[in-house]
Amino acid sequence: MTNTTESTLPPSTEITESEVNPAYKDKALSIIKKLVSGNKFALEEVQLTSFDGKTLRFSAQNLLTLQTKHSKATQSGLYEDAIKVQNEESATNEMDRYYAAMGSDRGLEQEVHKLILSRTDKGFNNDTDNVSIALPKLTKKFVISEQCTACRGKSSTPCLPCNGSGKATCQRCKGTCRTPCTHCSGSRMVAIPGDASKKIACPVCRGQGYVGCISCNQTGHITCKSCNGHGSLPCMQCDGTGQISHIYTQEIQLQTRVLYPKDKLPDKVTAKLEEQGLDITQHADIHASNDRADIEKWTAAQENKPDSIYSEIKRKKQVCFPLLYTVTLPYGQIEYALNDKKYEAFIFGKASCLTYVSPFLDDLLREGIKALESAAQRNGNTHTNLMIAGEYRTLKEGIILTAMTSLNKAKNKLKAKTPYGLSDTAISSIISLSDQALKNITRKSRITSLIVAGLAYLVAFAGYFLTPLHQNIAANIPNTALQSIADMFVLCTIMYIGMMGIQAGAQSVLKKAINALHPNNQIKTAPPKLGGISYWNIALAGTIFLTIIEISRHITGIIPPAWYAALF
């Protein structure tokens, strides 16, 4: 358990302020300069014009309240893993006593505090506010055992099919003990062998027309199949145990509630505290106290305030283990100048994290974005404009990321590289303009490659249909449908090869452009987007394919594909 190093905690309503370390602003300014670096601006011209920083120290509390959750279940038999009680009222009283006893259990208080302080945020996290944490070790069960009312504790009930006798009426003789003679079919007489006109008394039944039932041994009853002759069945209500158990379960959950003087802190500080979650300890020094003297002093003060949250918890007779914190948190507001224009940034936490930063890079990159826009719109030389834009480090990163990955990933990565000073609008604009500019860079290559692919299609399809090749293949495939599939396979394969050729040509040009931006490292670019060229490629391949087939129809000795001839 962590104890605060201070002898006393500051009052819960008091916030003390002290001067922040002078190096605090320097670290923030260095972050600004790092973002400015490489964007055609002299770092020495980044001037700090004003700074207002403070180190806040205030108290906070986490009201760790034990909540109960009750459930009831009924099961057959004796339930041994529970505390036995006489009735439901006794169960309720026992659960109330068990819960109330937790309030004075200092060992439990220490365990609860240890559980919360083992978290990265030491429990000082608004994500845990009003969140319930299960405490399975504190679960208690109480049981009421009673005699089964269905069987009156005998564990069995009379068998209904045999009415408890263990015997059932023989279904073969229906209880008559006899069945029709199968030899004479009950007619009592049978024909004399060799003379069908004369009959004699049936020798099997001796002329009676019936015989004794062999299924029940002429008793008229058989053993009851439901109870196997016992006359009773295990009680279904208690599963043959004769007992019913009513189990009352009391589960304990820990509910957290973080309190600190939100309304007395600067708005920006409060907003950032609400955002941090588990990362709060990276920004603030949080000292927790489990000292009984501190806790008793705080609880006594709260009990004298009838409108306090803690007083409300005690009025509800809920067990609460307050955890007290002392929070030390630096923050600051800086103002700096670039190109005679002033910008602001808010510094939060001991790591000097910048937030609420003015979008100063939007202004610094304005001329570079104009060049990138000209490259995207093909105003002037696209390659030259792209190189001008690439002189700005941030724009160069945006162009390279666009060439390497999808647009959404490029936006996210550029935002991660430039978390401050560049607006989301500017990031989206940089990536979309870079995408269009790179398409323009490869445009000539894509068109040239499409023309080359068209000539290749002409040669390939002519060689396939205007020579004996197609007829030889068709001769080995007697099924017309399979011949059609073979032709479509040839079309798609050649068209795909052409597409890959167009893309390879465009990627070669793209690599040259990107490596010109970043000559010291070879950048691995993603396959360039072909845009409308891909549709032109499909249309061109299909047109040449059908044109060659049509030509084959008019050349003597060449048989066009059967599926094509069927169209006419």
Low-confidence stretches: 1-10
The counted number of beta strands is 19
Helix-strand category: alpha+beta
Distance, first to last CA: 91 Å
Written account of the structure:
By secondary structure, the protein is of the alpha+beta class. Among the domains are: about 15-65 and about 95-125 and about 255-335, no CATH class; about 360-440, no CATH class; about 440-568. Helices cover about 40% and strands about 25% of the residues. It has helices at about 25-35, 90-100, 105-115, 265-275, 290-305, 310-315, 360-365, 365-375, 380-390, 395-405, 405-415, 425-440, 445-465, 470-475, 480-515, 535-555, 560-565, and strands at about 15-20, 45-75, 85, 130-135, 140-145, 155-160, 165-170, 180, 190, 195-200, 210, 220-225, 230-235, 245-255, 260, 285-290, 320-340, 340-350, 355. Strands 1, 2, 3, 4, 5, 14, 15, 16, 17, 18 and 19 form an eleven-stranded mixed β-sheet that branches. A two-stranded antiparallel sheet has the order 6-13. A hairpin with a 4-residue loop joins strand 18 (about 340-350) and strand 19. Helix 13 runs parallel beside helix 16.
